[in-house]
Amino acid sequence: MADLSQQDWEEQLENDPNAVILDVRTEEELEDGVIPNSINLDIYKGQEFVEELQKLDKSKNYYVYCRSGNRSGQACSIMNSLGIENAYNLQGGFMNWEGETE
Question: Domain Rhodanese spans what residues (predicted)?
Answer without folding.
Answer: 15-102
